[in-house]
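Order emerges. One example.
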Amino acid sequence: MNYPKISIIVPFYNVADCVDYCLFSLLRQTYTNYEVVCVDDGSTDATAAEIEKFVQGYEKVKLFRKENGGLSSARNYGVSKSSGEYITFVDGDDLVSPYYLDTLIEPIVKECCDISIGCHSRLKSSAYPFDGVQWDFEAGYEIVSESEAVSRLLYGNPIISAWAHMVRREVYEKNPFPVGRVYEDTLTFGKHIMGFERYALCSGKIYGYVLRSGSITSRASACCSQMEELSQALNQLHAVILRRDSGLEEALVYHESIERCRMLVRICSASQELEKLKFLEDEAIEFLRGNARRVFADEKVKLRDKVRIGLAGFTPRTYCVVAKLLTRIIRS
C-alpha cells in the first residue's frame, strides 16, 4: 500500500497556552509519513517561542513566521511552505485523535476517494490537558456521492469547516482561501468541497474543537461588517450549491436558518453600530419566519433545532437570552 506524505497546516495567533496540547496531539499520530507546518501569524505573545521548542525537538515540526494577515492568509502561506501530497488543516487552539491521519487517508488510499471528511467533538477548555478525551479507535467510513456528502454537511453531520478534511494539495493551490474574510470556510465551500467524484465520510470523532471564548467566531458581540459578511457568504453558498444540485434546497434552508439563529445572538450582544445591525437583525428574523414551515416539515431536522429556529424567528429576544445562558453553561 502506498503511504503518501501528508502536510498538516496549523495557523497560530496568540495562543501560546494552546501550543503544547495541539502539537503533542499531532506528534502522537499512528500514521508516520507526515509533516507539521506551523504558521505563526504575527503573534504578539510567546506563541512562536513555544513552537520553537518543538522545532528543536522534533524534525517533523516546521515553523514559519509572517506578519499578521488573518486565518486565510496563514493557511495559504502554510500551503506554499508545505511538501505533502495531501493536506489537512488543524487550528492552533484545537487537538486531534492519534488516529486522525490514518482515519482520513485510509479511504483515499484504499477506495481512491478524492476527499475524506471526519467528525469532531466539542471540548471545554477547562478540560485541559484533555487526557480524558475518548477518541474513536476504529472509525469506519462510507463512500457517498457529492449530493449526499453536501447534504450531510449542511445538516451539520459533519459540519462545514476547513479542518478535519483531507484532499490533494492542488485543490488549495488552485483555490486559495480569501484573505481578509472571516467566514472563509463558507466562502470556499464550492471550490474546496464540491466538484469531486468520490467522497468518504468518516464516522468516528477524530478532531477536538476546543471551546474558547477568544476565538474569532465565538465572540459574543458582533460588528456590522462581520455580520454583513456572514449574510453575503450564506447567499453565495446558497447560489453555488443550487447551481449544481437543486435537490439540496431543503438542506440549505435548514443550514441558513441555524446560521441566522447564531447571527441573532451575536447581534443582541452588540453594543455598537446598533442601527446598522438592526437591518441585519430584521433580515434574519424575516428569513426564519418565512422558512419556518419548511423547517418544521423537514424530517431530517431534529426536534430541538425546530424549537430553536421557531423560538428565534417568533420570539427573538427570548431566544437570545436563553441561547446566551446555555452558552455560558456549556463553556463553564
User: Anything to note?
Assistant: The CA atoms of residues 86 and 168 lie 4 Å apart. The first strand starts at residue 6 and ends at 12. The mean pLDDT is 90. DSSP finds 14 helices and nine strands in the chain.
